[in-house]
Amino acid sequence: MSSKYLVKIVSSVVALVLVSLLWVLIISKPNNDRVSRSTLLGQSAPSIVTATIDDQPFDLQRRKGSWVVLNFFNSTCVPCVNEHHLLVDFAKREATIDNGAELYTVVNDDSDDAVRNFFLKNGGDWAKLKDENGAIAVAFGVARVPETWVIDPNGLVRLRVTGELSEGLLEAQLDKLREEFTS
Amino acid sequence: MFLLVCVLLAFGATRSGGPQTQQDRIDLVTSHLACPTCSGESVFVSRASAAEAIRTEVARQVGAGIRTDDEIISYIEQRFGSQVLLVPRSTGLDSLVWSLPVAVLIIALSLLVSAFARWGRRTPIAPSTDDETLVKNALAETAQDSNES
């Protein structure tokens, strides 16, 4: 095979690969999906034994039998503040229905007083869990807040939502899960 | 001498580092993990709260003495994803990071060796009869010109 022919083949292959990569970049859609993957989905939820900011004991194991929603929160995080009214509405809705979910805030790298003041000002009477040294966040793989997780009555992780909630997202996902996993 | 160097290098590369303290293990594991909220920093050096939380968890697991260093790294990877690994795994698709440069180097060296060999074998081009005639004529003309002058 002559070297001229070889050069033509190699440069054509390189050009084809580059054009393919460019095409993949052009057609791929940005990942705006808030419902995220996790190796914990379908697995038993990590153990959470802690206390609320009002010093009430909390053990996730003891919540079996109920749908549990954990919202990782920091009072200085803008998306957390933005989504708060949606959580307030969600908690009100869940309180009125059978098999309604229990909502808990997991305080992430924030002081108890700041969280207490935030909830006094913005509403929300559900329990706020302390996360000493970020142990709960690491157990769930939460690096940035807000994140929202749903755990089914058997203690299995069913949903992870990263970032700010959109209106109706949590309700729709939870209804779907209840339909799918409630026997 | 070469053999001695090879033996010493092999010994140095394979010998155990001896008993490690818990702090050594924590430092080693956290230096292999990337801080999930910062760019280009390991958990070992980062002061971000997420990195501090991971450091605390690594320290807890090392203290508990149940998991090996690799198992602790795998635990953190399972939670935060493979982007938390500073050193890519040598299995699965990640192994391409290690094998691809070696493969490219081997292919490039092979091509170079084959190209040099081909150049070395290349026979000199023999002049054709027409070429020889042209040269003869040109030389004759030059000789004639110099005689006339």
Describe the structure.
The complex is a heterodimer of chains A (183) and B (149). Chain A contains 5 helices and 7 strands; from the N terminus they run αβββαβαβαββα. Chain A is of the alpha/beta class and 183 residues long. Chain A has 2 domains: 1-30; 49-181, Glutaredoxin. Chain A is elongated and about 80 Å long. Among the domains of chain B are: 20-87, Helicase, Ruva Protein, domain 3; 90-119. Chain B contains 6 helices and no strands. In chain B, helix 2 packs across helix 3. The longest helix of chain B is centred in the last third of the chain and has 26 residues, at 96-121. Chain B is rod-shaped. Classes of the chains: A alpha/beta (183), B mainly alpha (149). The A-B interface holds A 39-40, 108-109, 133-135, 137-141, 143-144 and B 36-37, 49-50, 52-54, 56-57, 60, 76, 78-81.
Give the chain pair forming the largest contact, with residue counts. A-B, 14 and 15 residues
| CATH H-level superfamily title of the largest domain in chain A | Glutaredoxin
What Rg of chain B is obtained from the alpha carbons, in whole angstroms? 33 Å
Q: What fold name goes in the CATH topology slot of the domain at 20-87 in chain B?
A: Helicase, Ruva Protein, domain 3
CATH H-tier superfamily of the domain at 20-87 in chain B = Cytochrome C biogenesis protein
Strand content of chain B: under 5%
Largest sheet of chain B: none
Major beta sheet summary of chain A: 5 strands, mixed
Radius of gyration of chain A: 23 Å
Count of alpha and pi helical runs of chain A: 5
| Total DSSP E strands of chain A | 7
Topology of chain B as a string of helices (H) and strands (E): HHHHHH
Instruction: Give the structural class of chain A.
Output: alpha/beta
**SS strand fraction of chain A:** 15-25%
CATH architecture of the domain at 20-87 in chain B: Orthogonal Bundle
Integer average pLDDT of chain B: 86
